[in-house]
Specification:
Number of domains: 1
CATH superfamily: SO1590-like
Order of helices and strands: EEEEEEEE
Shape: elongated
Strand content: over 45%
CATH architecture: Beta Barrel
Distance between the termini: 12 Å
Number of strands: 8
CATH topology: AOC barrel-like
Oligomer: single chain
Radius of gyration: 16 Å
Strand order of the largest sheet: 1-2-3-4-5-6-7-8
Length: 130
């Protein structure tokens, strides 16, 4: 199955246990999202990011737990994020953590893509429920 929809995200800076050095900007953020569409619900998570001194180069990792309904099935699952920007060329992977699906989402696997168009966030989610 492949679905698409919108989401809103609120990011709040958090304290880091260490600081970037030599011009590297490190950050830790709390994530709160609300999803609309065939995936409807909310999520909470945490992100770590690094922005290098080279324009357009950065990386981030994040974990978020999504709770809600997916095509009418209720439960929760965890997404693992891995993003890299290499001088403006970006690669982003969001993967459902194996065996993280609960309730009617038990057995969920898949990948999610994120798009930002005119300031609005969109998701494209390709998944299977086994």
């Amino acid at each position: 199955m492949k679905i698409s929809g919108q989401f809103n995200v609120n990011m709040q800076p958090q304290d880091l246990s260490f600081a970037g050095q030599h011009g590297q900007q490190l950050a830790r953020m709390a994530l709160d999202k609300s999803y609309q569409g065939d995936l409807s619900g909310s999520s909470s998570g945490e992100m770590l990011s690094a922005v290098s001194t080279t324009p357009g180069s950065a990386g981030y990792v994040a974990i978020e737990q999504v709770t809600g309904t997916l095509m009418g099935r209720s439960g929760s699952f965890v997404l693992q994020h891995y993003g890299v920007m290499n001088r403006g060329d970006s690669h982003l992977t969001l993967t459902v953590v194996p065996d993280s699906g609960t309730d009617e989402l038990t057995g969920l696997t898949g990948q999610m893509d994120i798009r930002i168009e005119d300031g609005q966030h969109y998701y494209d989610f390709e998944y299977e429920l086994g």
